């Protein structure tokens, strides 16, 4: 009997590996190369055009001494924490309700997911109109007789970021709901039957059994939400353009303004590098939880 040697690991799925070469080269040359280029030039005094005049950490010192950047980081933290918490809570609750096999489930799912189909610019303009005190929700309710009613977050520097948060939640919660619903539908029905037989309350079943079983879904959802938080830009531009004053500034807008309007590439590159660092802070724990724990498990 002739024994056929096992194929060398390197040549397994050779066609797929060859087909992936253009994508790998693109990622290395454009994405990785562009990232390294941005980091290198963040240590230069580039203005209108890139120039290799190293200034050390001057751009970063100037960045962290600028009030506008500090305000943008504070806004990002507030928006990010609130967006993470409320998106997950609201999305999971909506998914749990739809998972009860209610009537017209497809209709409700479509309605809740519809805002995600809109661009952030459209969403921002819609909520700019809704929150406008002259002809939005405040004006409508006052015309109905409640003269003292007031809701104008986009014109109050102390709470303007929460007005942007409302628009972001309205658009993104539908996607989170669908991800959570897919996770819930993947739970074996025997788990629910066993919980009912043991007399475990529904809320305890969700909290101590279902949610731990949905860990991969939650990790993926967290990464999606976090990536959207770091690059939030369109909503701010459409709703407030960073105002009133600099009260609703965010890092992405800071980078855009300095690179394309302020003609200060070095400062824009430094801010971009700090945004990249924030992305790595999200991706590294995710990669460890997703792959490292499996390897050690």
TrEMBL record:
Keyword annotations from UniProtKB, A to Z:
Cell membrane, Membrane, Transmembrane, Transmembrane helix, Transport
CDD domains from the entry? TM_PBP2
Q: Which InterPro entries match?
A: ABC_transporter_permease, MetI-like, MetI-like_sf
Annotated ABC transmembrane type-1 domain ranges read: 73-286
For the keyword Lyase, the answer is no
Q: Is the Signal keyword given for this protein?
A: no
Which Gene Ontology BP terms does the record give?
transmembrane transport
Instruction: Give the UniProt subcellular location, in the record's own words.
Output: Cell membrane
Source species, domain of life: Bacteria
Instruction: Give the membrane topology, semicolon-separated if more than one.
Output: Multi-pass membrane protein
**TM regions (residue ranges):** 21-43, 76-98, 110-130, 159-184, 205-230, 269-289
**Gene Ontology cellular-component terms listed:** plasma membrane
Q: Which family does it belong to?
A: Belongs to the binding-protein-dependent transport system permease family.
- Protein name in UniProt: Sugar ABC transporter permease
Q: Which organism is it from?
A: Oricola thermophila
